[in-house]
Amino acid sequence: MDQVLNMIETINGILNDFIWGPYMLIFFLLVGAMFTIRTDFFQITHIRRWLDATFLSVFKDRTVLRTEDRHSISQFQSLCTALAATIGTGNIAGVATAIALGGPGAVFWMWLSAFLGMMTNYAENTLGIKYRYRNERGDWIGGAMIYIERGLHCRWLAVVFSVFCFLASFGIGNMTQANSIASGLQSSFGVPAWTTAVMLMSFVALVIVGGIKRIASVTEKIVPFMAVFYIVGGLVVISMHAEAVPQAFVLIFCEAFHFQAAGGGVLGYGIAVAMKRGISRGVFSNEAGLGSSVMVHAASDVEEPVVQGMWGVFEVFADTMVVCTITCLAILTSGVYDMELYLTAIAAGGEDAVVSGAALTASAFATVIPHGDKFVAIAIMMFAFSTILGWSYYGERAVEYLFGLKGILPYKIFFVAVTFLGCTGSLSLVWDIADTLNGFMSVPNLIAVTLLSGEVVQMTKAYLEK
């Protein structure tokens, strides 16, 4: 058994090094850069337009909040459900891990990947609306697999994407999130893992049994609350260390282009390491390029593809530019991060010698907020629970594409059961495999959006000329 596990770990390590290696990360950036250039830097030149059509519209247009179509969800609900899946443990533990293992410079590369990823997500959601269709129950069906099949006319590639999405929903979308909830509640509040498992299974089952309408109804309440809860806490920490904010930005930009490798005798992680950690954690957090959030955006009642594309721009902005940046600045201004200490630890004992991401974030919050570990544990619980709900829908869409409507109920039952394993099991290998599967979703998706890029540009120009 040990030999089999070692073999799986070795194979996964090779695949993971490829999918999160320099060539694929450059591919992520190039696709985002292509859409940015071909749309004349839409995320900057039309910032007022996409903010007005998304975040600001929530306060001005009630049709954005509610829909009369019983087979659709509102635009705001689609955003909340997409954010539910993207704003997860990566925003707390993942960002801290990027800093610990890649240095402060990783933050710059995370920002760059998000800036370009805004337009990748824009393209995905625009195509998602264009090629979606209604199934026999009248529900909207869309996603990367749909525009791969209907746009590229390449069903086998759509099947590949769906298989990766199906498998990833149990790993990165369920077990790893459940494990984070159970670990946080046990270490901070002494709650036994099995108790968390039973409660979590019950809550997940109650929500996902109602389909996308119930999932969206829950996420539109959870997501705004959890985002404000975490952002306010983070801003309190940053404001109490406001004098350190300028130096934090200096450190981020200087270390982003530091060419000295870690352990080489000069302080600095090295530009290659910073790029890898920053870009990969950015993609892991906002999922731009993976093609996952398209499935829920396609369920929106919107009629204009470009409008839903702009919700995709705001999704990445909120996830990375806001929430992840809050985590970064809280860590870098609070004084809990000692770059030289981390460099020495990495050189001496490898990555295992570094304090875990969640613990580093908790230490930062604890400098200002009493029981900072409990605050972060509660935030992780909310973030991870919402991620489970969002990813349950992604997996459901993949199952329906692969097996039809008959596969949905067995999938939901198994999905709920897997949360128990996530809470009670040791998941070091599962985390690694989940990370790999998550990345491999990007391969067929990025190929598709690249080949269909002309349609995205054409739809954008037509919309702007109205």
Record the SSE blueprint.
Blueprint: H1 2-19, H2 22-38, H3 42-45, H4 47-53, H5 75-86, H6 93-102, H7 105-131, E1 133-134, E2 140-141, H8 144-152, H9 155-189, H10 193-208, H11 211-240, H12 245-256, H13 271-286, H14 294-297, H15 305-334, H16 339-349, H17 357-366, H18 372-403, H19 408-424, H20 428-440, H21 442-451, H22 453-464
Quick synopsis:
This protein has helices spanning 2-19, 22-38, 42-45, 47-53, 75-86, 93-102, 105-131, 144-152, 155-189, 193-208, 211-240, 245-256, 271-286, 294-297, 305-334, 339-349, 357-366, 372-403, 408-424, 428-440, 442-451, 453-464; strands at 133-134, 140-141. With 466 residues, the chain is mostly helical.
Descriptive report:
Residues 261-268 have low confidence and may be disordered. Helices cover 76% and strands 1% of the residues. The chain has 466 residues and is mainly alpha-helical. The chain has helices at 2-19, 22-38, 42-45, 47-53, 75-86, 93-102, 105-131, 144-152, 155-189, 193-208, 211-240, 245-256, 271-286, 294-297, 305-334, 339-349, 357-366, 372-403, 408-424, 428-440, 442-451, 453-464; strands spanning 133-134, 140-141. It has a two-stranded antiparallel ribbon. It has a single domain (2-464), classed as Amino acid/polyamine transporter I (Up-down Bundle), CATH 1.20.1740.10.
